[in-house]
């Protein structure tokens, strides 16, 4: 079968415009007149079926059917239908005075339009005019595709962005164009009045094309019905032409990296107010699908090489949704854009788990996951952007505590949440007297470790952070449970009380945060 051109004339157009002089009358399958015709062919050969590729309008005088029985004629029609022929135009007046009944009945049964031509017109005339029009339509499509391709590449070179590209696709197709993320989020649209009309265009779509990056579909480009009907094949052709340039625009410079994303992160860190609609457009233009039911989770990542941090962030976010990020002073600031989680997990847990799951790819990066900002709760003003900026800066401020925790091995793992580090932030703002009082609770352990090269303070903090579970604590410390019990007994002896008592639990954990805030780490014995 030959590949069907992107846009061709319909059978109805051919009949009305190019067979009209032959006085055509449609006898069967009146509901099949909108099928596209790729070529108009004439033949009197009975066994013409195998020589056709499908999509043709076949003209015949029936000369090859004269003298054949009814069953053989039905087989002729059946073979044409099975081959994918669009219609059979049967001229009467030469071989037959009327179209044989068996041909009409078989055409009706096979839903093959049978068109009776009641006036003799040279077939060569009808074939030439019809096929010239078909080829002209194909050439017009090729010119249109070429012009759109050039325009879209100009948009990319000039930094016009996704919005400008969708405008040009919509102008070429004369219909609304909508870009939807794989998670169902509305990324961008042109030719619609609002989000509601954009979704109506999606529901009534006439064609669509996937936006694929690195083997994964990241969005879908959709053409909706326009005021002037456009063939679905032509719309599909234009969407296919636009898919490549749009993919490049969405993921320019790598996933999450684009000039739009870089500028957005910088403005958020600088507390520059951005209206919700503009924020949505800039996130979407950076390749991060966003909608009214999206969670935006700020993340700050640090590693010996910023490229390592960027790679870890991209890998972790790939399982969640879109991500935009920028490296500022060797620290990677990112926004993970994801659907609101269902069940017992919240967005922070999902992002933290995603970083943990990439394993070795995050073995040398330190991550702080901030508080999520829900788009559903945002008003039309700049409130959402200011909240995101605050959360980003909070992550950056607490990154120091996270790095110190990794260096002192006070916790297992390298992925932290800003809410878990809030206690360290609180400890740094308390009065010196309150901080000293808390540090005094664990000071005997700190002095003992400094004098005897033991790790009692570290053991106690790890045990408390693991909920006093002997199994989890021993695993985190890489020691046996019996060794853990021995260390805890020694801790009680040095302190003179049981620091794992529920009444002391909170104070002891806060004491370790106060010790880090004090900048002591270890204390020199008197």
From TrEMBL:
<dbReference type="InterPro" id="IPR012914">
    <property type="entry name" value="PucR_dom"/>
</dbReference>
<protein>
    <submittedName>
        <fullName>CdaR family transcriptional regulator</fullName>
    </submittedName>
</protein>
<dbReference type="Pfam" id="PF13556">
    <property type="entry name" value="HTH_30"/>
</dbReference>
<feature type="domain" description="PucR C-terminal helix-turn-helix">
    <location>
        <begin position="456"/>
        <end position="513"/>
    </location>
</feature>
<dbReference type="InterPro" id="IPR025736">
    <property type="entry name" value="PucR_C-HTH_dom"/>
</dbReference>
<dbReference type="Pfam" id="PF07905">
    <property type="entry name" value="PucR"/>
</dbReference>
<dbReference type="InterPro" id="IPR051448">
    <property type="entry name" value="CdaR-like_regulators"/>
</dbReference>
<dbReference type="InterPro" id="IPR042070">
    <property type="entry name" value="PucR_C-HTH_sf"/>
</dbReference>
<feature type="domain" description="Purine catabolism PurC-like">
    <location>
        <begin position="22"/>
        <end position="133"/>
    </location>
</feature>
């Amino acid at each position: 079968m030959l590949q069907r051109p992107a846009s061709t004339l319909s059978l109805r157009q051919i009949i009305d415009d190019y067979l009209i002089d032959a006085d055509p009358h449609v006898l069967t399958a009146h509901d099949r007149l909108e099928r596209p015709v790729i070529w108009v062919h004439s033949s009197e050969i009975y066994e013409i079926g195998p020589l056709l590729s499908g999509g043709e309008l076949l003209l015949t005088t029936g000369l090859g059917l004269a003298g054949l029985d009814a069953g053989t004629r039905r087989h002729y029609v059946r073979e044409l239908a099975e081959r994918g022929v669009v219609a059979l135009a049967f001229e009467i007046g030469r071989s037959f005075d009327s179209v044989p009944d068996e041909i009409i009945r078989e055409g009706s049964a096979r839903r093959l339009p049978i068109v009776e031509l009641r006036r003799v017109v040279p077939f060569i005339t009808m074939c030439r005019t019809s096929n010239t029009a078909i080829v002209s339509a194909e050439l017009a499509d090729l010119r249109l595709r070429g012009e759109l391709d050039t325009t879209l590449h100009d948009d990319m070179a000039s930094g016009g962005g996704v919005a400008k590209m969708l405008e040009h696709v919509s102008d070429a197709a004369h219909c609304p164009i909508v870009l939807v993320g794989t998670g169902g989020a509305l990324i961008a649209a042109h030719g619609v009045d609002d989000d509601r009309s954009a979704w109506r265009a999606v529901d009534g779509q006439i064609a669509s094309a996937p936006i694929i990056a690195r083997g994964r579909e990241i969005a879908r480009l959709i053409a909706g019905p326009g005021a002037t009907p456009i063939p679905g094949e032509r719309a599909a052709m234009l969407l296919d032409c636009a898919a490549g340039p749009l993919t490049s625009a969405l993921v320019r410079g790598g996933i999450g990296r684009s000039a739009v994303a870089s500028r957005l992160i910088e403005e958020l860190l600088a507390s520059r107010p951005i209206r919700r609609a503009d924020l949505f457009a800039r996130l979407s233009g950076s390749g991060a699908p966003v909608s009214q039911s999206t969670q935006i989770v700020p993340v700050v990542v640090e590693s010996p090489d910023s490229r390592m941090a960027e790679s870890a962030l991209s890998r972790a976010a790939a399982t969640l949704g879109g991500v935009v990020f920028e490296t500022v002073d060797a620290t990677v600031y990112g926004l993970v854009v994801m659907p609101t989680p269902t069940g017992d997990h919240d967005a922070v847990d999902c992002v933290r788990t995603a970083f943990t799951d990439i394993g070795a790819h995050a073995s040398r990066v330190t991550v702080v996951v901030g508080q999520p900002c829900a788009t559903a709760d945002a008003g039309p003003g700049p409130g959402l952007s200011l909240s995101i900026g605050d959360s980003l800066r909070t992550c950056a401020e607490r990154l120091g505590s996270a790095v110190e925790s990794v260096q002192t091995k006070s916790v297992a793992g390298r992925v932290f949440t800003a809410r878990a580090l809030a206690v360290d932030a609180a400890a740094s703002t308390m009065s010196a007297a309150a901080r000293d009082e808390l540090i005094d609770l664990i000071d005997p352990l700190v002095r003992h470790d400094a004098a005897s090269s033991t790790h009692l303070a570290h053991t106690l903090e790890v045990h408390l952070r693991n909920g006093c579970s002997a199994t989890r604590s021993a695993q985190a410390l890489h020691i046996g449970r019996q060794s853990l019990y021995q260390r805890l007994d020694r801790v009680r002896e040095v302190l003179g009380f049981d620091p794992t008592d529920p009444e002391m639990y909170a104070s002891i954990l806060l004491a370790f945060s106060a010790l880090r805030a004090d900048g002591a780490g270890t204390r020199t014995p008197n």
